[in-house]
Amino acid sequence: MDGPAILAAHAALQRVLASFPKQDAGACESSARSLDVVVGQEGGVYFVRIDRRLDRCGWPVGSGLEFDWFELYAVSPEGKILARRAFMP
User: Fold this and answer.
1) pTM value?
2) Residue 8 neighbours by CB distance under 10 Å
3) DSSP letters of 1-41?
4) What is the pLDDT of residue 67?
């Protein structure tokens, strides 16, 4: 990955981690360990999708706390979040 892609991924990951409830801080399910980050680029904007992977926290594969949970962000090459997809469809 190039530098701007890493900045975009980091910005989106930090936004998601900050949105988790404070009382769950320290739990694997609310940590970066439980998240996958996928970065793509189109037209000079990075699109970052973050998926939850609870199997990394000892849950059975395919487990979820919410139905089809993911976050999708449009991020500038400088790491500024430009837009976020609505949380629930």
Assistant:
1) 0.82
2) 30
3) --HHHHHHHHHHHHHHHHHS-GGGTT-GGGSGGGEEEEEEE
4) 62
How far apart are the C-alpha atoms of 86 and 89, rounded to whole Å?
7
| 73-87 average pLDDT score | 91
Which two structure tokens, joined as six digits, stand for 87? 């949380």
CB < 8 Å & 24+ apart, contacts of 68-71 = 71/12, 71/15, 71/16
Sign of the torsion formed by the C-alpha atoms of 76, 79, 81 and 84:
positive
**76 near 82, Cβ under 8 Å?**
yes
**Mean pLDDT, range 32-44, rounded to an integer:** 93
Is 48 within 8 Å of 37 (Cβ atoms)?
yes
Helix, strand, coil distribution of the chain in percent, nearest 5: 35, 30, 35
In whole angstroms, what is the distance from residue 29 CA to residue 20 CA? 9
